[in-house]
C-alpha cells in the first residue's frame, strides 16, 4: 500500500512534462471563477431553467473603474464558454460553491442555513488537510481528541461523552453517516468540497445531529475524460506524504476512480515510553496512515445513475494516546509522580494504537419528470487496538489495554424529492424520506491493570514481592489465581428508524417559508456488560455479567419528533439584489444511552435523552459590486439534559455518565470575504471570520468532578453557572492571499492567523482543566508552472511556537497533555491532468 501510493504519485510527476499544454487541454472550469466585469442583475432563481440574456456592453472607462467577480452558478452554462480577461490573476480563495446542506444541490448563498463550505482548492490554499485543522477557518468550531477519540464542539454544542454516546456534531462522507468517533481527524485526501453545517440539523441529517454536521464530499469519476492528480510532500518531523487520484472513463456510461494516500512521520513529541521494560524508555512509534478509496459511476440511462464505492484505512502510531502528566493531583504526588515536560515526558507503558476501517457504500438515483428518487446504503466496520497510560507518567500506577474496540454499522436511506419539472416547481420544493441505522459496538476486551500488579507472578509495582520459586509452585497447581488484570466486555446495540419531510414554499420573489419535521424511533440496549479477573491459567473469572436479555431495564427506546420552521426574506439589497435574511426555530433530540464499561460498578448507567430548542437569525449578502461577501448569524440554544462523561478509576465503573439539567448558548458568528482594492492589487483577497459564545450550565446540581484544589474525585458538586466545556468565548481567523502573475507564471502568497480565546475541558472549571488562549500564525507561498500544470508550495505553521494542546485529559492523577506541534515547515508538489 505504501509504495503503491508513492509510485502512483511519482509516475504522475514524471509524466507531467508530457501532459497536454495548459492552452490545449487543461480544464479551465476553475478559470471561469474569476471574471472581471460589471455584474448583471439577475432575479432570484425559483427553480426555472436558466435563460440567456443579452447585455449591453458598458463603456470601457466605466468597466475599468472597479473590478468585480462574476461566478458561475450551478444553473449557468459550461464554464469554458466564459473567458477570463488576459493578464488578470485568479485567486483560489474566490469560488462559487454548490452545497447539499438541504439534500439537494444549491448555491451556498441560496441556503437559509449557516454553512461554511470549502472546495478542495480552497482548502489547499488555506493549508487545511484534516478535520483537526478546520477550526482555523471555521469560527466557533473546536476539535480536540481524548485518548484517540475525536471530540467536536460547534457553537457550544457537542458531547465529551465519547464512549457509548454519539457525537453531537456528526460526520458524513459522501452522504454516509460515520458514528464512531475514532479516526475522524485523519487526512481528507483528494476531496471535492467540505461543508460545515452549524446548529441543529435534526430534520434532514437527523440522527443525533443536535450540534451540527461536517460533510466531506469526495470527487466522483469523470465520464468525459481521464483525470489524474498527485501530490508529494515532505516536512518537519521527517514527515513524508503522497496521495494520488486517477479517474478513467471505461465506457460512455461507465467510469471509475481510485484514490490513495500514504503518510509516514515521526511524532512531533520527543517522548519516551515503555520505561518499565526498557531503561530510559523507547521513542514513540512513527505515525502511519494508508488509505484507498475506489468509486464506480454508471449511468446506463438518462434517468438512472448508480454510484458504488469502497474505502479502506489503516492507521497506527501513538497520536494523542501519548500524554504526559503536567499537573499531578494529590493522589499522584503521593505515589511519587512529578510534573513532566509535555514535549519530553515519560510513560512507563508501551503506548500505541492500531486502527482499521472498511466501508462499502453506494447510491442509486432515479430521475423522473415528477420527482427524483435516491437510495443510499452503507456497511462499515471499524476495529481499534490501544494501550494507554492512565497516569501519564513513568510510575507503574494504572494503564488500560484495548483488545479491541469495534463498531459494526449498517445504514440505509430513501429519499424522494422534487426537481425542476415537478408540479409547482416555480413555487414549491420538497423532500421526504426514511432512514435506518443499526450498530453493534464497544469493547470486545478492555483490560485495567493497577500498579503493575501480577499476583500469579508475585509482583507489585513491577517488583517481585514473592520469591519466584513459590509463585511458580502456586501456578503449577493450575488454580484460577488472579493475575491482577481486571477485564470487561462492554457492548452496546442500536436500532434506529426515522421518517422526515421538508418543504419550501415561495411567495413570489420576496419570501420563502420552510417547514420540516423528523420522527425518530431509536432503541438502545446493553448487549453485554461484564467484570472479571484474568487468572494465571488463562481463565476469566467473571464477578458480574449482565445484558438486556437478563435485565429488561437495560433496554431503552427514545421517541422524538424534531420540527423546523424557517422564514427567508429577500429584500433586494446587495449586488444583484440577492441578499437573504432568514429566521429559524427548531427542536432536535439526541437519544438516551447506557454506559456499559463497569469494572467495579455492577449496574450500567443510563443517561437521559438530550433535547435542544434553537433560534437563529442570519443574513447572507454580497456588497460593493460583488467585491465583498458577508454571512452572519445570531443564535440562542437551550439544551435539556446535556450528557456528561467522567473517567475515573475511583468512580467505581471507571467511566461514568450523568446528565446536567440544563445548558444554554447565546452567540453570533460571521464569515467575510473581500477583494481589496482590485483596481490596484489584482488578486488580493481578505478573509475574516469570528464567533462569540456565551455558554453556561444554567442548572447542573449534584455534579461529579475533580476537586478544583486537590484533584480528588468529588460527587454532589454544583456546577450551575459554569461555562460549557470546549467552547471558547471568542475564536476567529484572518487571512490575506495575494495572487499575481510574473513572466514565469503565477505566484500565490497566503498569510493566516487563528485565535482561540481558551476554554475548559471539565465542567468544574479547575485551573488544571483550562486551555489558555493561544494564536497560531501560518504562511505559504506557491508557484504554478503552467506548461505542466505543476504547483510547488512551501509552507510554515505555528510560526510563533504557540503552545497549546490537541488534548488535555483530566484523570484521578492530574492533567495529561498531548501537545500540538511547535513551528513546522514543509514543501509539496502537486500535479493535475
What fraction strand?
A: over 45%
Query: How much helical structure, as a percent, in the residues?
Result: under 10%
The largest β sheet comes out as: 22 strands, antiparallel, barrel
What's the pLDDT, averaged over the residues? 85
Q: What structural class do you assign from the helix and strand content?
A: mainly beta
Morphology: globular
Determine the number of helices (DSSP H or I, runs of at least 4 residues). 5
Give the number of DSSP strands: 48
Cα-atom radius of gyration? 28 Å
Distance between the termini: 23 Å
Low-confidence stretches: 5-86
Short description:
This protein is mainly beta and about 850 residues long. It has a 22-stranded antiparallel barrel. Strands 3-9-10-7-8 form a five-stranded mixed β-sheet. It has a three-stranded antiparallel β-sheet with strand order 4-5-6, with no helix packed on it.
Task: Summarize the SSE layout with pairings.
Blueprint: H1 2-15, H2 60-63, E1 98-99, E2 106-107, E3 115-119, H3 120-126, E4 141-146, E5 149-154, E6 157-158, E7 169-173, E8 176-178, E9 191-198, E10 212-218, E11 227-235, E12 239-251, E13 254-265, E14 272-273, E15 282-283, E16 287-301, E17 304-317, E18 324-328, H4 330-334, E19 352-367, E20 372-389, E21 398-417, E22 428-450, E23 459-460, E24 463-464, H5 468-475, E25 482-507, E26 511-535, E27 540-546, E28 555-569, E29 580-590, E30 593-595, E31 605-607, E32 610-623, E33 628-640, E34 643-648, E35 654-659, E36 662-675, E37 684-699, E38 703-706, E39 713-717, E40 730-742, E41 745-756, E42 759-760, E43 770-771, E44 774-785, E45 790-797, E46 805-811, E47 814-819, E48 824-832
Parallel strand pairs: 7-10
Antiparallel strand pairs: 1-2, 3-9, 4-5, 5-6, 7-8, 9-10, 11-12, 11-48, 12-13, 13-16, 14-15, 16-17, 17-19, 18-47, 19-20, 20-21, 21-22, 22-25, 23-24, 25-26, 26-27, 26-28, 28-29, 29-32, 30-31, 32-33, 33-36, 34-35, 36-37, 37-40, 38-39, 40-41, 41-44, 42-43, 44-45, 45-48, 46-47
